[in-house]
Amino acid sequence: MFPLLTALLLSRVGPGKPAPLSEGAVEAMLGSCGHRTVPARVVGGEDAELGRWPWQASLRQWGSHICGASLLSRRWVLTAAHCFKSVPYPYEWTVQFGELTAEPSLWNMHAYYNRYRVDKIFLSPKYLGEVPYDIALLRLSSPVTYTKYIQPVCIPASISKFENRTDCWVTGWGDVAEDKSLPNPYTLQEVQVSIINRSTCNDLFQKPDFRTDIWGDMVCAGDVTGGKDACLGDSGGPLVCDLDGLWYQIGIVSWGVGCGRPNRPGVYTNISQHIHWILKTVASGGSPRLDLPRLLLLLTVPWAPRLVGLI
Questions:
Q1: Which domain of life is it from (predicted)?
Q2: Which residues neighbour 89 within 8 Å (Cβ) at sequence distance 6 or greater?
Q3: Shortest CA distance to 212 belongs to which of 102, 308, 146?
Q4: Which of 72, 88, 275, 284 fits 76 for a cystine, CB–CB 3.0-4.6 Å?
């Protein structure tokens, strides 16, 4: 464990309730983050530009895109826990960085060199097979090489500064509408969304045809009029906002009702509520692997794919 990381954790994480962390402390632990060199384009575009979201990753099982993910540091990646519906064997998984397409050519050597094997998978200890607490950390087998097109994202100690923002973004390779797959050449999509406060979001989800509570670590984003949302295949991807020139990931794509429906914003995992678990896991190199009873519990939970997650 790095000396600075050790000192900060010992001062923050004790037997009682962890003390709040500042943004500076988090960045000191994980390193420089949130930078991009490709400038923003006009709002309203759909196809992303290479390097515009340099932390965006494709989580792949046996070489096929399954979920989105984001680069946290050279060895660590964030995604959604529900992406691993069965026993999470690391050897089945790789993470692709630095590509605009979800299906790079077999002859694309850049893609080959920027594809990393997963060494360990850590689901949140609070996750019990469905939302909330839908977050996972991946430890890569080798360190990522940073480039102009591959950079880590920052994570916030609190999302209070991002509440009611209307200029945040969600990205991914999922469906572009309900029952409409992303067409060839499978270019990364981006959409600008608003952060919707919990009270408003709870009211929206009490409307007829589907009622549920927004609670725990859930945070909502989208457009109450519809048309701006994550969809199937975007699970695990980042919801990011700019703050003073740095990009922070405040949420992980988790679940929703349909895609882009009015009064049905997307629901994301609030990363700031997991900040101590993230830092402790990174600092220690990971907690013990899941034991058999926990794996059996995950396998016996009934799944409702669209409502539980957006794989």
A1: Eukaryota
A2: none
A3: 308
A4: 72
- Active-site residue, 167 included: no
pLDDT along the chain (311 residues), means of 10: 42 51 63 73 60 96 95 98 86 96 88 94 92 95 96 95 93 90 92 93 83 90 91 94 95 92 93 96 70 32 36 55
In 3D, which of 254, 163, 266, 268 has the Cα closest to residue 218? 268
**Cα-only R_g, the chain:** 18
**Looking at 58, 70, 124, 134, which residue is catalytic?**
134
Which entry of 65, 82, 217, 272 is annotated as an active-site residue? 82
Least Cα distance to 171 among 189, 183, 155 occurs for 189
| Pairwise CA distance, residues 60 & 112, whole Å | 13
Determine the Cα–Cα distance for residues 180 and 114; give it in Å rounded to an integer.
Answer: 29
The sign of the dihedral angle between the CA atoms of 178, 188, 124, 201 is negative
| Active-site annotation holds for 235 | yes
